[in-house]
Design brief:
With 507 residues, the chain is an alpha/beta fold. It has a domain of 120 residues: 3-Layer(aba) Sandwich (Rossmann fold), CATH 3.40.50. 45% of the residues lie in helices and 12% in strands. The chain contains 23 helices and 13 strands. The strands form 3 sheets. A 6-stranded mixed sheet has the order 1-11-10-9-12-13, sandwiched between helices. Strands 3-2-4-5 form a 4-stranded parallel sheet, with helices on both faces. The longest helix is centred in the middle third of the chain and has 25 residues. Pfam families: Oxidored_nitro. GO terms for molecular function: oxidoreductase activity. This is Nitrogenase.
Length: 507
């Protein structure tokens, strides 16, 4: 197992640590097979022959960067301030994240407020002479305005280029202010996939905020999540366990007490991989190693794994029995209503695997999925957390399984091949293209909608609601024009330009 090293201020990016790729096409079973080197412990340590093959595209039409993930993680700690040491353009996403943050607080019943994110607004002169003084002044301003319990400093491509010594400033003001001032090195060019930004935030928190001499709380469980509704409190209450939600919408104290918990769990291996293993390896908090909590079987295994760690097996079995009996009739009714329906999932990787699991338990055909990246292995290196292998081995193959880093130009051919009745999606920028093809999309703003036993029913009802609007989307498709050439629309292979980049220069 690779040791998570908290000594440096920078985190090893995902492509180096986990072998992450952002472009691939084929059957899901083939991707599981090709990813098998990671299970054997081969990885990049024993030569290029062990690397997972990746389709190298000639350009990127659209994506996000690691800094934005720092915004949506560190920027969502309620009693902290995030400083974006960057040009003002990097702060443009504060608008959408502020909306998500406010909605998340409202869903959880917490006081609604705005984000506390400040940009140093680097300009041309700062790029020549450096922006350290501006950063120091912004730290002082953040302290005077908000009196936060922590100040995070997120870097940007610009600060990486000019080489500002952010670590020294952070150390200086940690001492002066008596609070953690945490550098988060998240330059957009640092990694080819934005999920490294999750790890960057988690690395900084593990180094600087998590309590080093914890007093254990045997009934406390860390739940690594985003902004979704509180579905874990009622689930874990059945096992007499308390939830410590991290990182989004948490307080600094919530983050500090993570080392005191009895276990760490998550709803998505992509999000939780680094933090959970960091807590296990450096603070002795065991990570739950089990399938993700989706569908009856996955949720059973997830709960039993947690119950074993926390010694609550009897309570767990009683809860599983009650929930299965309560929801079986509802799920059967949904299966009747959804018989013959075909779905498509376009989300982050491990989350997509979980959603497909639920769709198939609802009897929905899924012959295609788009994930935004693929990790051959997670930080625990435990095969039981291989969510794609779990999907294939327990619910069957996915014929058209594609990895693409949110490239809208490829989605057209992917949907044309799969011919779904609806699309599940979390990143709404791709939804309008599906609508232009007559396919309604369910934007999963609440990422917890499909979690647990109740999640099977929640997702089924959401899909029925979406299908009721299918006629509108079919009418829309008759009156809109796609922004692509006839040549591109005639292509069946969405990766043709990656395989034959010379086609870009042909008339």
């Amino acid at each position: 197992m690779g040791k998570i090293n908290l000594a440096p201020t920078t985190v090893e990016n995902r492509e180096q640590r986990l072998g992450t790729i952002i472009a691939w096409d084929g059957k899901a079973s083939k991707l599981v097979e090709e990813s098998g080197y990671s299970v054997r412990g081969c990885g990049n340590k024993k030569g290029k022959g062990c690397e997972l093959c990746e389709i190298k595209g000639p350009f990127t039409q659209g994506s996000v960067c690691s800094e934005q993930m720092v915004e949506c993680q560190a920027g969502n700690v309620r009693d902290a301030v995030l400083i974006q040491h960057s040009p003002i353009g990097c702060a443009v996403s504060q608008t959408i994240y502020n909306s998500i943050y406010r909605n998340g607080l409202a869903i959880r019943g917490l006081p609604v407020e705005n984000l506390k994110i400040i940009s140093t607004n680097l300009k041309e002169g700062d790029m020549v002479f450096g922006g350290i003084e501006k950063l120091a002044q912004t730290i002082r301003d953040a302290w005077e305005r908000h009196k936060p319990n922590t100040i995070f400093i997120g870097t940007a491509c610009a600060t990486g280029i000019i080489g500002d010594d952010v670590d020294s400033v952070a150390a200086e003001y940690s001492e002066k202010l008596g609070i953690p001032v945490v550098p988060l090195h998240c330059e957009g060019f640092r990694s080819k996939h934005w999920s490294t930004g999750f790890d960057t935030t988690q690395h900084g928190i593990l180094r600087s905020i998590v309590r080093k001499n914890p007093k254990k709380q045997e009934d406390l469980v860390n739940v690594i999540n985003l902004w979704g509704s509180d579905v874990f409190t009622p689930m874990l209450k059945e096992l007499n366990l308390r939830v410590n939600y991290v990182i989004d919408l948490a307080t600094v104290e919530d983050l500090a007490q993570m080392s005191e918990a009895a276990a760490t769990v998550g709803f998505c291996n992509t999000l939780s991989s680094y933090l959970a293993q960091g807590l296990e390896q450096n603070f002795g908090v065991p990570e739950l190693k089990a399938p993700q909590p989706y569908g009856f079987s996955g949720t059973d295994a997830w709960l039993r794994g947690l119950a074993k760690i926390t010694h609550r097996e009897e309570l767990c079995e009683a809860y599983i029995k009650r929930e299965r009996e309560r929801l079986a009739p509802k799920v059967e009714e949904l299966r009747k209503k959804l018989k013959g329906v075909k779905g498509y999932v376009a989300t982050g990787s491990a989350y997509s695997h979980g959603l497909i699991t639920v769709l198939r338990e609802l009897g929905i055909e899924v012959n295609g999925s788009l994930v935004f990246h693929h990790d051959p292995i997670y930080d625990s290196e435990d095969p039981i957390q291989d969510s794609l292998a779990y999907l294939v081995n327990n619910y069957g193959d996915v014929e058209n399984f594609s990895v693409s880093n949110r490239q809208p130009h490829q989605l057209y051919a992917l949907l044309k091949k799969a011919k779904p009745d609806f699309l599940l999606i979390r990143h709404n920028g791709l939804a309008p293209l599906a609508s232009r093809l007559g396919i309604p999309a369910a934007p999963l703003g609440d990422e917890h909608i499909a979690v647990g036993y109740e999640g099977i029913v929640n997702l089924g009802e959401a899909i029925i609601s979406v299908l009721q609007r299918k006629k509108f989307h079919e009418d829309l498709a008759q009156h809109v024009k796609l922004p692509y050439t006839k040549w591109w629309l005639s292509q069946e292979d969405p990766y043709i330009l990656a395989k034959n980049p010379e086609l870009i220069y042909q008339d």
